[in-house]
Amino acid sequence: MARVKTLVMSSGIKAMEINRRAKETHKPFCNDGLQTCSKLANIDWDGIAKLCPENKQLHDQDVPFAEVYPLAAQTLASNIQTFGQRWQMAADKFTLHTGPELHRRVGAVRSRVADDLAPMTRAAVEEADEASRSLALDQPLRIKHVVDTIEKMLRKRRRRLRWVRRGLWLSVEWLLVGFMWYVWFVVMILRVFLGIGQGIWHGVKWVLWLA
Question: For this UniProt entry, which segments traverse the membrane (predicted)?
Fold first, then answer.
């Protein structure tokens, strides 16, 4: 009987201790409570607090240890609901405002491409074709005309230079011929005078010899 009483009393004491600990309040989201509850309940209160940065009341909330898990579940469920609402609001905003605005911009771009850029592109292509045709057909003729004109000018210049050269050579030839005739004329005059002098000398000698 004593053993039974001891076991009953021990069970009662354990139950009272368990009840006391279950009703013991904690602040799981404060810094001190974070360390305590993370050891007791093995819950990542730091991660839960990061998911709910806007709920300032959680940091000062006293919660019995028995309600720690329901608090964590409630906090996570509230956070999931909040993020779901935000996502729904973002989706509605995209559907009602952003999507139509993007469609309007895409339509404006398509309209500009179809109305303005396409005609400009066709005009540019036509101008490029015209320029290519001009380069292929007209420009070679113009270049040939310019080349022919330059060749004619060069031929005229060569002709002028040829006549100038011929005139110079003829002048040199006539100068040489004239100089040679002049020398020959001087030599002939000298020979004539020399012959006359010799004749006079021989005549004087012959007269003196007769005397």
Answer: 167-194
Dmax (CA) of the chain: 218
Give the end-to-end CA distance of the chain in Å, rounded to a whole number: 218
Number of domains making up the chain: 1
**How much is the pTM?**
0.37
Contact call for residues 63 and 93 (beta carbons, < 8 A): no
Q: Are 68 and 28 in contact (CB under 8 A)?
A: yes
Name the pLDDT band for 39 (thresholds 50, 70, 90).
very low
Return d(Cα 147, Cα 145) in angstroms, integer. 5
pLDDT tens per residue across span 45-74: 666 666 665 555 555 566 676 666 777 777
Q: Does residue 160 lie in a domain region?
A: no
Q: Considering just the CA atoms, what is the radius of gyration of the chain in Å?
A: 65
